């Protein structure tokens, strides 16, 4: 383990939480994701993702197949990505200018 593997914990002030809630309320139609995504969704957790993976594995094993499982740690992927490329992807998805301006700040 290295020090770089850990991030500090920050506690957002109430104003930030209110701002986030206002943004979500105004632009929630642009945050629709796949049903296969479990992270950062209301009423879903790692427990749900693990349950789905176990069900898939059990189904294949019960039908006589061999199952190999691989995991990838993407915990720091966002830190190392090209943020300009992400911004361009958001523009291609036709996000409103108001939201793009807020994200750009």
Topology:
Layout: H1 14-27, H2 46-62, H3 77-80, H4 83-92, H5 97-104
Task: Give a quick set of tags describing it.
single chain; 105 residues; 50% helix; mainly alpha
Quaternary organization: single chain
Radius of gyration: 19 Å
Q: How many helical stretches?
A: 5
Distance between the termini: 33 Å
Q: What overall form do the CA principal axes indicate?
A: extended
Number of strands: 0
The percentage of residues in β strands lies in under 5%
Order of helices and strands: HHHHH
Arithmetic mean pLDDT: 84
Helix content range of the residues, please?
Answer: 40-55%
Overview of this protein structure:
By secondary structure, the chain is mostly helical. It is 50% helix and 0% strand. The chain contains five helices and no strands. The radius of gyration is 19 Å and the shape is extended. The two termini are 33 Å apart.
Tell me briefly what this model is.
The protein is mainly α and 105 residues long. The chain is 50% helix and 0% strand.
């Amino acid at each position: 383990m290295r020090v770089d593997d850990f991030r500090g914990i920050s506690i957002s002030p109430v104003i930030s939480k209110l701002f986030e809630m206002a943004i979500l309320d105004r632009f929630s139609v642009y945050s629709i994701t796949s049903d296969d995504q479990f992270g950062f969704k209301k009423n879903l957790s790692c427990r749900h993702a693990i349950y789905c993976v176990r069900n898939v594995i059990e189904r294949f094993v019960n039908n006589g197949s061999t199952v190999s499982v691989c995991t990838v740690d993407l915990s720091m992927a966002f830190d190392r990505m090209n943020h300009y490329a992400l911004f361009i992807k958001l523009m291609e998805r036709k996000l409103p200018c108001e939201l793009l301006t807020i994200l750009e700040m």
